[in-house]
Design brief:
3 domains, 17 helices, 8-stranded parallel β-barrel, about 675 residues, Chitobiase, domain 2, binds acetamide, 24 strands, single chain, TIM Barrel, about 25% strand, 7-stranded mixed sheet, Jelly Rolls, alpha/beta, about 25% helix
Length: about 675
């Protein structure tokens, strides 16, 4: 039932912390679909009347949203803000859309749902915060995608409910509408399940506070309350509070319960659910064991009672499937069900869980591995290993949420690593996030319509504190918010950056530890311009036994003399990777004998994905390509560390040569060696 309510409060509080910017679209983030400017402005002096025509629950939320930014009502005022719930609004097709018409005396916002009006209020709030007035004109706005999400990993490090609510406040301001909570993983189970108390009495607690100490240490769990127990969990009451808090801001919380992998904590608390029944041994559930389905169904039943979301995320990523081929129960399950391989066995579990979730009127989301053994009939795919999973899903008629690591993993460095706290690796500045378009060009319009949206993921292995978590989220999530909301043809990085800088000021003022974008250092200076050196463009021969790795070709045979240096990111397609025993052994032909004063190559070390500096480099030269004389042998003691580091291995002197041989030998750790250019001067 729609009730007309006029809210009258005694005073108008002008609590804005405006920064004297102009109240134009430059301050609305995400940028609106359409703005028509008119002359004049609506100011708040003398107070305003607030009129809302919407169901009571929505009206309370909307009034709260206005009051949160300091806009409260004065019933005697001559000016008004009217929020109208309508059957239809011209120019709007999405229920989350809105239109705001502003004259010097009246602001009228129309929407077809509470969410639409809430987003109108966010736009008003942003303009008001920026300059204490709303410019006259009309804003017609609606989201490009239905799903605009942030994922918080509360397993690797636990973040309490107040912190979660604080993030809900912020993302709602930027018109995001999904909070995906990665609630379970090896590092700790984070949600109370009444039927399985060991999940939170034991599997939520570990022996080390920092994930990396624990993961590279003993990986033990602890009883709740033990003196060295680190971790935590949400009680069911906490979850209800978070879910309601989010709903009041038109955000749906989507729980993720990992299966069949990333489940070491469960399988230590309940070892009978693994293939070998031994604690501390397995990461994957036993797919052959009926008891596993009873467990998962019981857990999901409680989860679905707690989370009213249509979608329940059931993980599905990175199963090693190592114990399944030899497990009698898994083998007999494969035989009975006619499953050809372990991928099909994984799909058996996912499909079975989908049937269960569907039977409760809900749907599943899974990481893109759920495609591998055949996709469950109604599943939505979250594409993280690039975009192929999303493309395959929509081509098969399924919805896809795009969250490719290259653009959406907000645990990577957002700026030069030496200026940042230690991160998981990579380099993902806000500009790169912003450059992402979730709809690949190769899709037909029908396929494109199945791209459900975008999500930024904040994996927390290297994020032990709330402060650091906020530093990683903001401002990059603003790029995700704008990609998710604004029309592709309205997006422009330079304009976005201005708005993001304003938003960072606002976020910091409001107590968020946002990275100060105004101090951005940028990419590796060497990578910014081509390097013209003696070997540029010259042919490189790779010795048999030391090929570059197919995933890290950096453009192939010409990569080491193309004049292009790599940036901070090992995956920027400028770093050539070598993993073979033969290490690196290349010979450059300068085409004629040249006077040479230096020969050097840079290497990267990033241990998390297994990239190490060489233990030894040998540089030699030759006039005829058969007799080489050694110019330098450079040794290095390779030590595993957390940071992303770079080291140049080079020689300086005077020689004459036509051929240069550059060899690099791996340390005993094995792994990759990554180099970008052999610079000859
Ligand atoms: C994932 O990053 N394993 C989904």
């Amino acid at each position: 039932m729609i009730k007309k309510i006029i809210f009258a409060a005694a005073t108008l509080l002008l609590l804005s912390c405006g920064d004297n910017s102009r109240a134009t679209e430059e301050n609305v983030l995400p940028t609106p679909m359409h703005i028509e400017k008119a002359s004049g402005k609506f100011t708040f002096d003398g107070g305003i009347k607030i009129e809302i025509n919407a169901p009571v629950e929505d009206s309370i939320r909307l009034l709260q949203a206005l009051s949160d930014v300091g806009i409260t009502a004065n019933n005697n005022a001559g000016k008004s803000i009217t929020l109208l719930l309508c059957d239809s609004v011209a120019g709007i097709t999405s229920p989350e859309g809105y239109r705001i018409t502003t004259t010097p005396k009246h602001i009228t916002a129309e929407g077809t749902s509470g969410a639409g009006l809430f987003y109108a209020v966010q736009t008003i709030a942003q303009l008001y915060n920026a300059a204490n007035y709303i410019p006259c004109g009309t804003i017609t706005d609606q989201p490009r995608f239905e799903y605009r999400g942030l994922m918080l990993d509360v397993s690797r490090h636990f973040f309490g409910k107040d912190y979660v609510k604080k993030q809900i406040d912020a993302i709602a301001r930027y018109k995001m509408n999904r909070l995906h909570m990665h609630l379970t993983d090896a590092a700790g189970w984070r949600v109370e399940i009444k039927q399985y108390p060991r999940l939170t009495q034991f599997a939520a607690w570990r022996s080390q506070e920092l994930w990396k100490d624990w993961w590279y240490g003993d990986r033990l769990y602890r009883e709740e309350g033990a003196p060295d127990a680190h971790g935590g969990y949400y009680t069911q009451e906490d979850i209800r509070e978070i879910v309601q808090y989010a709903a009041d801001r038109y955000i749906t919380v989507i729980p993720e319960i990992e299966m069949p992998a990333h489940s070491e904590e469960v399988l230590t608390a309940y070892p009978q659910l693994s293939c070998t029944h031994e604690p501390y041994k397995q990461a994957d559930f036993c797919v052959g064991n009926e008891e596993v389905y009873t467990f998962l169904e019981n857990v999901l039943t409680e989860i679905m009672e707690l989370f009213p979301s249509k979608y329940i995320h059931i993980g599905g990523d990175e199963a090693a499937k190592a114990s399944w081929p030899t497990c009698p129960l898994c083998k007999s399950r494969m035989k009975e069900e006619g499953l050809a391989n372990v991928n099909e066995l994984q799909s058996y579990l996912i499909e079975r869980m989908e049937r269960f979730v569907n039977s409760k009127g809900r749907s599943i989301i899974g990481w893109d591995e759920i495609l591998e053994g055949g996709l469950a009939p109604n599943a939505t795919v979250m594409s993280w290993r690039g975009t192929d999973g999303g493309i395959k899903a929509v081509r098969a008629g399924h919805k896809a949420i795009m969250t490719p690591g290259e653009f959406c993993y907000l645990d990577s460095y957002q700026d030069a690593p030496h200026t940042q706290p230690v991160a998981f690796g990579g380099y993902l500045p806000i500009e790169k996030v912003y450059s992402y378009n979730p709809v690949p060009d190769s899709l037909t319009p029908d396929e494109a319509a199945l791209i459900y949206g975008i999500q930024g993921n904040v994996w927390a292995e290297y994020i032990p504190t709330e402060q650091l978590n906020e530093h990683m989220i903001y401002p990059r999530i603003l790029a995700i918010a704008e990609i998710g909301w604004s029309p592709q043809d309205k997006r422009n990085y330079e304009q976005f950056r201005t708005r993001a800088l304003n938003a960072v000021k606002q976020l910091r003022k409001n107590g968020y530890n946002a990275f100060d974008l105004s101090c951005e250092y940028g990419n590796r200076p060497l990578s910014l311009a081509p390097n013209n050196h003696l070997a540029k463009g010259k042919r490189v021969a790779y010795a048999t036994g030391s090929p570059y790795y197919p995933t890290y070709t950096a453009g192939g045979d010409s990569a080491l003399t193309d004049g292009i240096h790599g940036g901070w990111n090992n995956s920027d397609k400028r770093w050539q990777g070598f993993i073979g025993r033969g290490g690196i052994d290349v010979c450059i032909d300068l085409e004629e004998e040249k006077e040479i004063k230096s020969i050097a190559a840079d290497f990267m070390q990033l241990c998390e994905p297994g990239i190490y500096l060489p233990a030894e480099v040998e540089i030699s030269a030759s006039a005829d390509s058969s007799t080489f004389h050694t110019l330098a042998t450079i040794g290095h003691n390779v030590v595993r560390d957390d940071t992303l580091s770079f080291k140049s291995y080079g020689w300086e002197g005077e020689t004459k040569a036509r051929y240069i041989r550059y060899r690099a030998i791996r340390g005993k750790q094995g792994g990759f060696m990554f180099t970008d250019e052999i610079v000859v001067k």
